[in-house]
Every structure is written in structure tokens, then in C-alpha cells.
Amino acid sequence: MESSRPVRRPLRLTSWVGVAALFISVVSMLGLVTPAYAATRPGAGVLVAGARPGTIDFANIVLTEARQVASRAHYRYGGNGPGVFDCSGYVRYVYGRLGVRLPRTAAAQRGAVRAIPASQARAGDLVFVVWAGRITHVAIYAGDGYWWEAANPRSGVGLRRMWTSHVVFGRLA
Fold first, then answer.
1. What is the pLDDT at residue 50?
2. Which fold does the domain 16-171 belong to in CATH?
3. 166 is catalytic
């Protein structure tokens, strides 16, 4: 005689995406991680993995991501990722991977952050090159006169010494 009870089958996760989604759900439910906070307006109320802009923890998170993205990228004007970038596309992509929305152009990114004096600049802040009164370039400040940038086809995407002093700094609010 056949049983009328349903047959129980073991749970199968058929892809790594399913495994990752399950892991993230369980870890979040247990409160073991603080997810990145995606702002409702670009650059506003930023909190990345529990770290606030201007802190060492925030710098470590941003600079690690900048390094990872740069390691597999090259420069192309208008490039917006994932492997091809111009300056603002690179900055936008790095911060976007951390849950922070930024506008597409360097000038618009300047408008989305809070201006800070150079003396208060910290790693992870944004650096804007100003030429003839216009924002012409953006990079991620790495500290000690270095920045992560997507500069041009010849030098590509990477960590370099800042090549100008005509800069202003900005920090996510």
C-alpha cells in the first residue's frame, strides 16, 4: 500500500549564486555583518560595511576595492566598466561595488561630495583636478601624495603619484 505522505527531497543548491545568496541571507539574519548602505541620493549618508568616510576602516575597504578593480582594467575614454574605464567611470565603478551611488561625470561627482580642505584629506576621499576653473579629472586619494586613477591609454588604470597640485578634495557625506 502506498503512503499518502509527500516525499521529502534533499535541498539542492544548483549554482554558486544560490549558495552565495543562502550564505548572505543567513549571515545577515544573524547580524554578523553590516551590509553596505546604498544612499537614496548620490553620495548621501554613506556607510560601507560599518565604516564612515574619513576613517581608516573606510580607506582600507575603498583602497582594496580600487586595487582589485585596477588589476583587471584598462583605460578607454567613456569607459564605465567592468574592465574598461575613464577616470570618472573608474571612481563610480569602485564605489558602486561598495554600494555607493555616484554620478557618471567628474564634475557631477564633485557636486555629490562635501568639499574638504587638503589638510583634512584622508585615503578613500575623492581628488578632483581643476584646470581653467573646470573639473577635468577625478581619482581616489590613496594618501601621501598618491591616488588610484584611470588616466589615459598609455598609463592605464592604477596607483600613481599625483601629477598636479591643482586639485580639490571631496568626501562622501
1. 82
2. endopeptidase fold (from Nostoc punctiforme) (3.90.1720)
3. no
